[in-house]
Amino acid sequence: MSDVTDAVAHLFQQGTAVPAMLLASVAALIATAGFRTRWSRRHGQAPPADDTGARPPSAERAAGPAPTGHEGAGSALWRMRTTVRDAPGSLAVLCAALAGRRIDILSLQTHPLAEGTVDEFLLRAPGELSGTELAEVVTAAGGARTWTERADAHDLVDAPTRVLGLAARTALDTAELPLALRQLLGRCTIRSLPPAAGAGAGAGDAVPPEGTLEDTVLRLRAPEGGVISVERPHLPFTPAEFARARALVELDARLGPRIPRARDVLTLPEGSDITVRRADTRDVPAARAMHERCSAQTLGLRYHGPVRDADRYLNHLLSPRFGRTLAVQTASGRIVGLGHLLWDGDETEVALLVEDAWQRRGIGGELLGRLVAMAAETGCESVYAVTQASNTGMVAAMRGLGLPLDYQIEEGTLVVTARLAPSARPGAGVPHEERIGRD
User: What is the pLDDT of residues 59-101, one digit of tens each?
Assistant: First the structure.
């Protein structure tokens, strides 16, 4: 595993020939990939110990049978996991029971464990068969601890191809690791636990280099230090899932910090050019310098707390483990604006800060539009902004999205939630002109 990861990292550093070579090499790295489903396509400012994955479904489903109602006519796709005795003929009995109910097995992977064998299926069943009835068929045939969930056309994609895609995304962008883990492992809570401050053992020292797997919790050493913790209470992790997650994290560690280098040059109404690009923790000094040029009022509207504490948020805000950041840069290289898309548990937050001298030029609206496009690409159904009613610039920028908005007052602050239209989600994007207007 280590040798293959070294090879992948080396290939990534070689230049334009990398993509095809990378995918071919990662195939060996993810050789354990078999049947794995896309459990959730929803993605999602969180304190350092909060969820950094994409948005999960709004209602978590416990292990056990899926929806109890009957489906319509035709056929339906199901994902199913069940445990059978590790004995000759056990799987054959289960398959025969499924065939007796006209259930087609599209994919199967087995995981031998000490207490039995866990079998994962992708099934096509008659449309009138409910999740409860499917579980009853399996139980009668010897299955135990059965879990079912409706699948969709995305689950028909070849599993190794899907895993190769996740590896390629991770190789190109550090911020993709939490999202790739969420798509690899399904509905789960992903937390990045930072190293302990000061001397002594950090969070990463409590986890061995190879990581740990404890039923519904797996922990891996984070590439930048600390620990990546993944929890999935409704379904235990298998050793194969643990191996795949560890391979992705190891790949990320070997490649080091990286973000896409794309830059967009835009023209302001008065004719000045600005550049919009991705930012990370390497931009903390420039972001701190921008803080020094901002007024106390501007910083107060952004951080909702003592202005003197603003700088201490920057390492977290600019870390790709907790979201994505866009920076607005002048021709001289000075950062004058920051936009953050932050994974906050099962929600996604957007936050903006524009230097006083550069406000009311359309920069905030441009940043917000791009952040919403990023959220849509990761499958989010909504984004929210925490501000104050007096922050007319942020409120106007949210209205300028042209999306349905919800307003709610929480503890003296205004929370504005924008619901993303289906057309704005994956594949749609938000167009941007080369010239931007005023707010």
Answer: 333 333 344 334 445 889 998 889 888 888 889 999 999 999 9
Which one-letter DSSP state was computed for residue 429?
A: -
Say which CATH topology domain 263-424 has: Aminopeptidase (3.40.630)
Strand partners, 83: 118, 144
State both tokens at 136: 């009853």
CA distances from 313 to 45, 98, 168, 284 (A): 10, 54, 30, 10
How far is it, in rounded angstroms, from Cα 311 to Cα 314? 6
pLDDT of residue 409: 86
Q: How far apart are CA 394 and CA 397, in angstroms?
A: 5
CA distance 14 to 146: 46
Single out the residue of 351, 326, 327, 338 nearest to residue 413, CA to CA: 351
Among the listed residues 224, 247, 245, the one whose alpha carbon sits nearest the alpha carbon of residue 6: 247
Whole-angstrom distance between the N-terminal and C-terminal Cα of the chain?
Answer: 52
- Tell me the three state secondary structure of residue 340: strand
Burial code of 374-410, b = ≥16 C-beta within 10 A, e = fewer?
A: bbbbbbbbbbbbbbeeebebbbebbebbebebeeeee
Q: How far is CA 146 from CA 98, 131, 137, 281, in A?
A: 14, 11, 10, 44
**What's residue 289's pLDDT?**
95
At position 28, the amino acid (one-letter code) is: A
- Write the pLDDT tens digit of every residue in 350-377: 999 999 999 999 999 999 999 999 988 8
The residue written with tokens 């235990």 in the block is 236
Number of neighbouring beta carbons within 10 Å of residue 97: 17
Question: How far apart are the C-alpha atoms of 181 and 170, rounded to whole Å?
Answer: 10
User: How confident is residue 35, by pLDDT bands cut at 50, 70 and 90?
Assistant: very low
How many degrees, rounded to 5, is the angle at CA 11 between CA 7 and CA 17? 150
CATH number of 75-155: 3.30.70.260
Q: What is the pTM of this model?
A: 0.64
User: From CA 227, how far away is CA 195, in angstroms rounded?
Assistant: 8
Torsion of CA 381, 387, 392, 395, to 10 degrees: 10
- CB contact set of 4 (below 8 Å; sequence gap of 6+): 25, 28, 29
Query: What residue segments make up the domains of the chain, in order of their start?
Result: 2-56+157-255, 75-155, 263-424
Q: What is the per-residue pLDDT for 38? A: 28
- Nearest in space to 101 (alpha carbons), one of 67, 78, 119, 68: 78
Which structure tokens are listed for 60? 């978590």
